Amino acid sequence: MFAVAMLGVLIAMALALVAAVRGPSVFDRILALNVFGTKTVLLIAVSGFLSGRPEWLDLALVYALVNFVGIIAVLKFV
């Protein structure tokens, strides 16, 4: 069941990358990269649950914070 969820997250990540490449404006591309980062957090969390390693959730939270700060920094310069 969770392997299917992991596959769904990977497909959503691929679609976010396609949207980042095809985005008509810079803001659409930044939004697609933010979605990709969010899906990466979900992938880390599901992988940690599947492997029985709850400490991966801490890594997912750190990645989410870094992703948020990075997106805000990029938007400040754009």
Major sheet: none
User: How many individual helices?
Assistant: 3
Shape: flat
Q: Helix and strand succession?
A: HHH
Strand content: under 5%
| Spatial gap, N to C terminus | 41 Å
* Topology, number of strands: 0
Percent helix range:
over 70%
Which whole number gives the mean pLDDT? Answer: 93
Q: Would you tell me the structural class of the helices and strands?
A: mainly alpha
The value of Rg in angstroms is 14 Å
* Low-confidence segments: none
Write the topology of this structure:
Layout: H1 2-22, H2 26-51, H3 56-77
In a nutshell, what does this entry contain?
With 78 residues, the protein is mainly α.
Describe the structure.
The protein is mostly helical and 78 residues long. Helix content is 88%, strand content 0%. It starts with a helix and ends with a helix.
List keywords for this structure.
mainly alpha, 78 residues
